[in-house]
Amino acid sequence: MRNLFNTKVRIILVIAGLITAALVIMNSVGMITVPGVITQTLMAPVRGVGTALASTAELYYSYMFKYEALAAENAELKAQIAQMEDVARQADSVNRENARLRRLNNLKATNESYEMVDAYIIGWNSTDWNSTLTINRGTTAGIDANMCAVTENGQVVGLVTEAGPNYAVIKTVLDSTLEISGTISVSGYNGMVGGGYIDGHETLLKMEYLPSSAIIRNTDQVVTSGSTVYPRGLIIGNVVDAGFEETGVAKFALLEPAAEINTLEQVFIITKYTAEAGATAETTPAETEAAGTPAN
Questions:
Q1: Rounded to whole angstroms, what are the CA distances from 230 to 147, 175, 222, 291?
Q2: How high is the pLDDT of residue 258?
Q3: What is the SS3 assignment for 250?
Q4: Which residue in 70, 138, 234, 251 is deepest, having the highest Cβ count within 10 Å?
Q5: How many distinct structural domains can be found in the chain?
């Protein structure tokens, strides 16, 4: 046992001697000092951690800088796109208005007696039985109650029923209380055209009091008969169906309104016109009642 202990001691002493000799040799040639070896050994892990932290911080800063730059560039691009879209919308609006005015000029050219005021729609009110529009011009622009509203194509929109200094309310052809004297242009049959809720055909007009012998075809055009309220020949709609009334002594026709009421942006109010020869001299009772004027 004692010999074993002596052997271990000898081995330890030999290893220590070798290490000491190696350190002496390294120190003598200026490679490293003993304290330096200890210091380097102790600082190596710390330096590794510091290097890793510095590298991570550098990567994070670079990422944040690039992210901020990309975010700023993205915001600028979004602003440019929004501006371009706004310009495009304005251009589309101007183009639509120009197209309407060109068609309006054609309408005026064929109806030289028309004096008209344009207005934009600023409000809608629609139920099963009622349909009205509010426009942005009124009495100060020459608009008053019982004036007809049309599109640039001469399609009937409705009748002005209320007017203030800077607004007016139009009862549209879809309203159940508005009736217009109409004529099937190809055959000359006359009847009364009204709107309102028709089960299964809510967006259609109904032309009533047609003769039982009347021949009615789909796509036949119905126009105004002419009165002190509605000039003659304005387009009301086109026939899409027909049938007999319940009494069997008269026919009716269902019409698709010529004016697309729900998509209108602008309307034109006929403030004055000269009735054509053959037009009805006085407004019919149904038309005056619909306009809010008591019938005689």
A1: 8, 16, 14, 11
A2: 96
A3: strand
A4: 234
A5: 1
- CATH number for the domain harbouring residue 184: 2.40.10.340
The answer on pLDDT for 288 being more than 60 is: no
Domain that holds residue 257: 115-285
- Between the ranges 27-36, 79-88, 165-174, where is the mean pLDDT highest? 165-174
> Would the pLDDT of 158 be above 90?
yes
Rounded to whole angstroms, the Cα distance separating 254 from 50 reads 87
C-alpha count within 13 angstroms, C-beta hemisphere, residue 106:
9
118 closest CA partner among 102, 88, 87, 141: 141
Please state, in angstroms and rounded to a whole number, the distance separating the CA atoms of residues 61 and 67. Answer: 10
Residue 247 binned pLDDT confidence (cut-offs 50, 70, 90): confident
Query: Distance (Å, rounded) from C-alpha 163 to C-alpha 280?
Result: 26
Residue 28 above 90 pLDDT?
Answer: no
**What whole-number distance in Å separates Cα of residue 191 and Cα of residue 194?**
10
| Separation in Å, CA 289 to CA 177, 286, 296 | 9, 5, 10
Token look-up 């040639």 returns: 29
Beta carbons of 204 and 238 less than 8 angstroms apart:
no
Longest pairwise C-alpha distance within the chain:
147
Q: What are phi and psi of 128, to 5 degrees?
A: -60, -30
Q: Is the pLDDT of residue 4 over 60?
A: no
Is 276 within the bounds of a domain? yes
- The length of the chain in residues reads 296
